[in-house]
Amino acid sequence: MAAYIILFIIILIFALLIYNPGKTPPPPEKEKKPSDNRNKEAEAQKRAEAQKRADEEQKAARERTKVQLEQRAREKAAKEREAQQKAAELKAAEKEAERQAAEAAAVKAEAEKKAAEEAAKKREEQKKREAREKAEAETKAKETARREAERQAAEAAAQKKEEERKAAKAETEETVPETIPEIPEYPEFSHSRLLEMGLSDEEAREFVDELITQIENQIPLIQAAIDANDFHQMERMTHSIKGSSTNIGTGGVADLLVDYNTYLKTGHDLPLAKAYLENLKIYLAKLREQYR
User: Which portions of the chain have biased composition (kind: Low complexity) (predicted)?
Assistant: First the structure.
């Protein structure tokens, strides 16, 4: 290592001895000028190239700046167009919303108007219907009252005529006791007609039970007509239960009521009417025993 250091020092001293500015003579004046000229030309060329590069770099920088400015301008214009488009779309959306709202309001108003018209129409129809029904009811009531008055007048006239006939007969003729015919025996009541109509025995018995109740209710009314000597009323009372009994079956009360009602249409013997009523009570009791 020390040998290398010593060798390096020797080489350095030798180099210093060779290159000594004080001992080396300057070159002659004529030899120095061409070199200086070349150096100056080289330096001038370098400066020109440097200037050229600088100019090119400046030009490139200006181009880049121009491109950047144009890019920014385009981006700004694009943003402005986008903003304008969004504003236009928003305005159009607002107008569309206003249009739809106006249309909905118009539809609602039209619907409300139509509903009001329908309601008014229904109220008017209701008033007309009520007025018509009221008029019909009044007309019907008047007609019913008229018919009832006519019926009562006819009954009163018939009763008066009958009383006059009886009075005239009593004055001009001798009273001849009417022969009381013997009331026949009737077979047991049968609800065969209901069975023939397709009803079951149980259903038929229900109808018979209703008939029993109906006859029970009519007997006091027939008795009242007998007490009033009102043969017309007797005929009416027996007629209703006669129809019910003959529709259900035959025999028993059905046959008796046919004979009783037939007699009351022309006969006016009070004892016979009473005898029929007593027989009706007897056959009603038999009917109860048979079906209850």
Answer: 177-187
pLDDT digits (tens, 9 = 90+) for 219-257: 999 999 999 999 999 999 999 999 999 999 999 999 999
Q: How many CB atoms lie within 10 A of CB 263?
A: 20
Nearest to 244 by CA among 267, 221, 217: 217
What local confidence, expressed as pLDDT, does residue 38 receive? 82
Dmax over CA atoms of the chain, in Å, equals 213
CATH number of 188-291: 1.20.120.160
Q: What stretches in the chain show pLDDT beneath 50? A: 23, 30, 32, 169, 172-180
**Model pLDDT, residue 124:** 87
- What are the backbone dihedrals phi and psi of residue 188, each rounded to the nearest 5 degrees, phi first? -60, 140
**Which token pair is 248?**
């259900």
Spans of all domains in the chain: 104-171, 188-291
Q: Which residues contact 214 (CB under 8 A, 6 or more apart)?
A: 240, 241, 244
pLDDT at 161: 65
Spatial distance between the Cα atoms of 292 and 212, rounded to a whole number of angstroms: 10
Statement: the pTM of the whole predicted model exceeds 0.85: no
CB-based contact 189:253 (threshold 8 Å) = yes
Distance CA 257, CA 245 (A): 8
Q: Which residues pair with 250 in a beta bridge?
A: 190
